Amino acid sequence: MRNIRSLLIGATALLALLVPQFAQAQDFPSRPVRIVVAFPAGGPTDFVGRVIADKMTASLGQRVYIDNKPGANGTLGGGDVAKSDPDGYSLFLTTAGAVTVSPHVMASMPFDTFRDFAPVALVTKVTEVLVVSPKLGIKNVKELVAMAKEKPGTIPFASTGIGSPPHLAQILLDTAAGVQFLHVPYRGAAPALTDLLAGQVQVLAADVPVLIAQIQAGNLVPIGAAADKRDAILPDVPTLAEQGYPNTDASNWYALLAPAKTPPAVIAKLNKAVNDALADPAVHDKLVKTGATPVGGTPESLGTFMKSEYDKWGRVVAANGIKEQ
């Protein structure tokens, strides 16, 4: 009898915990939902966030809006969301660097990737493409590598910051080609691109959406994709692996995360809203035309993917001694 009473008390306590969560999920969302983008307005992450937010607004029946909180390689905005209530009303549109690279590079992090966040959905993948000025007179990565071998450690290779996917693309190319470029980190893509166009640096790796307008205008020459396959918007640009430099996939990606302990039913609603948005032909076309590849999928598949990326970049960072300066 005592065991039965204990079981009943335990079941009642569990039910008391689950009922509010069920009610919360049934009512969600009852007010606007905030998506934190940890980069300035106008950039590629911001663009993807706004495209998705507009469609999620229609799907969820409540306004979904973007809150830009740039700083600290994308980790500042992540820290804000990690400390938010786990109710689905504050979300983080993260890049690969913020949650799978920075934890290995930065001395102090405002969050723990796997303790403080719950995966919602992988939104897009974004190719890192290497570009040079037409004035440099080279057409492919082999010619760039030959130049670097003639002047080791002196060819300025710009990136969007230490530990960023563009920096990792350079590191992987260094290793695969047996060369050493002079890494020149910038605080974001805009100043790096400005200096490349001005001839202050020789080569830049960056997200396709950052570079596509200048490539299409003929101001930059794309010489290779640091990815596992060619980018749909640049089908004539071979990957670094196709040019003889394997293990050089430094693809960036954007994913939607919620604070840990957000109710699973709320996560499920958010996941469906993201997948519905990505399946919309207008949204799909808008993203693809800027160089972002829509992905989608389950929270579980995102969690597995993030863990593999975290482990992969941890090995690269450790092997190359990459640390914030």
Question: What would your notes on this structure say?
Answer:
α2 (44-60) links the parallel β1 and β2. This protein folds into 2 domains: 2-126 and 252-320, Bordetella uptake gene, domain 1 (D-Maltodextrin-Binding Protein, domain 2); 128-226, D-Maltodextrin-Binding Protein, domain 2 (3-Layer(aba) Sandwich), CATH 3.40.190.10. The longest helix is centred in the N-terminal third of the chain and has 26 residues, at 2-27. The termini are far apart. The strands form 2 sheets. It has a 6-stranded mixed beta sheet with strand order 2-1-3-10-4-11, with helices on both faces. A 5-stranded mixed beta sheet has the order 7-6-8-5-9. The chain has 12 helices and 11 strands. With 325 residues, the protein is of the alpha/beta class. The chain has helices at 2-27, 44-60, 75-82, 96-105, 113-116, 141-150, 165-177, 189-197, 208-216, 264-279, 281-289, 299-320, and strands at 33-37, 64-68, 90-95, 117-126, 128-132, 156-159, 182-185, 203-207, 221-226, 252-259, 292-294.
